[in-house]
Amino acid sequence: MNDLSRLFAAHQPAVEAAALETLRSGWWLNGPRMKSFADRFAEYLGVSICIPVANGTDALELALRAVSNQRGPGAEIVTVANAGGYTTTACRQVGLVPVYADIEVCSQLLAIESAVAGLSEHTAAVVATHLYGNTIDVPALRSAMDAAGYKHVAIIEDCAQSHGASIGATKAGALGDLATFSFYPTKNLGAMGDGGAVATNDPTLADTIRRLQQYGWRTKYEIRLAGGRNSRMDEIQAAILEAMLPHLDAQNAERQQILDRYSLVAKEQVRFIARRDGSIVHLAVALCADRQGFRKFLAERNIASDIHYPILDPDQAGWSGLPMRESSSGLKASRDSVARILSLPCFPGMTDGEVDRVCSAIVDWKA
Ligand SMILES: Cc1ncc(COP(=O)(O)O)c(C=O)c1O
After folding, report:
1. Where along the chain is the active site annotated (predicted)?
2. Are residues 225 and 270 in the same domain?
3. What is the DSSP letter of 317?
């Protein structure tokens, strides 16, 4: 599905120099590279503040804690059920109750009406996940929430799969109150290890997150906030991410070209999900009439495939019996889609020959 050694080979001198300089500096945590990457990434997103953290799930947990701090236990978070469970994992850490809204089948993104139907007096935030690089219309979500009387409810964008996406001139990550990023190696901007970040224009929320990220300290060793923990991005990852950031848009264009070629040969039995204006491509995801048959056909031709994601959050056995609820609109579209989605290989460095092979398989497949 991905070959990260190709990415390393394409950027080896810059990545090696960044890592070696960091090691030689003797400064491996909380240093100048973390600050420098934070500034560069904030500038790229068009936000005033970026706080690097250890990974994308921590970023979600810290963001959720920051917006729900005043709410007490049992506060609710409206989100989707089809995005891999990361928001639910973070909710469980904080003691928040996930409320699952449905998706639109064509884009596989949060359906705004269903999100609004899930809001209640207990809602602390809506997590809008820009899944597969496809951008949710956050301004439209904000207007619908405001019109329904939920102006005070925060929107957190989960941008783990949407580095570089935008709506109009505004980047994903600058559309809501807070945004969270993962720099897991296969992401559009990936570290060579773990990494994550929270981005915002709100200095008060940023201050809370910085404290929560460092044990709840106000000043060194002085704890003023409960719920703190340790979540840091190390200097080597920050230096590598800063070296890779200038290549993000070109690598997004490569993924886009691959998906464009697949889409050209797509047909009713293998239909790629609709992309919104300003979206980027993270994964090439199709809805398949006979997924199992197509996967078998691909495997016979030595073509990898995967499912993102095979189990909806409310159906995960590990969370059964824990507090959760569904939006009153139900989860019909999420349930219909989970049996049909399939991801095909799509990563920077894929050769034309490899893309051709996938295209031929799509053309030759008869359900
Ligand atoms: C949509 C989404 N949110 C959150 C995460 C969590 O990021 P991490 O693996 O860095 O904790 C991921 C990726 O793994 C993701 O795809």
Report:
1. 187
2. no
3. G
Residues 219 and 256 in one domain: no
**Residues marked as catalytic:** 187
Provide the pLDDT for residue 323: 97
pLDDT digits (tens, 9 = 90+) for 174-233: 999 999 999 999 999 999 999 999 999 999 999 999 999 999 999 999 999 999 999 999
Mutation to probe ligand 1, out of 53, 57, 180, 231 (largest number of atoms < 8 A from CB): 57
Number of domains present in the structure of the chain: 2
* Residue 253, both tokens: 């264009």
pLDDT at 358: 98
**Residue where one domain finishes, among candidates 246, 274, 294:** 246
Statement to judge: residues 173 and 278 lie in one domain: no
Beta carbon of 79 within 6 Å of any ligand 1 atom:
no
- Cα 344 from Cα 301, distance rounded (Å): 13
Going from the Cα of 365 to the center of ligand 1, the distance in angstroms, rounded, reads 32
Q: Range of 314's domain?
A: 247-364
3-state secondary structure of 306: strand
Nearest CA to ligand 1 atom 15: 160
Given a cut of 50, the residues of the chain with pLDDT beneath it are none
184 CB near ligand 1 (under 6 Å):
yes
What is the average pLDDT value for the chain, to the nearest integer?
97
Instruction: State the greatest distance between any 2 C-alpha atoms of the chain, in Å, as a whole number.
Output: 65
β-strands 217-219, 76-80 pairing: unpaired
299 membership: H or E segment, kind and range: helix 291-300
Cβ–ligand 1 distance for 160 under 6 Å, the answer yes
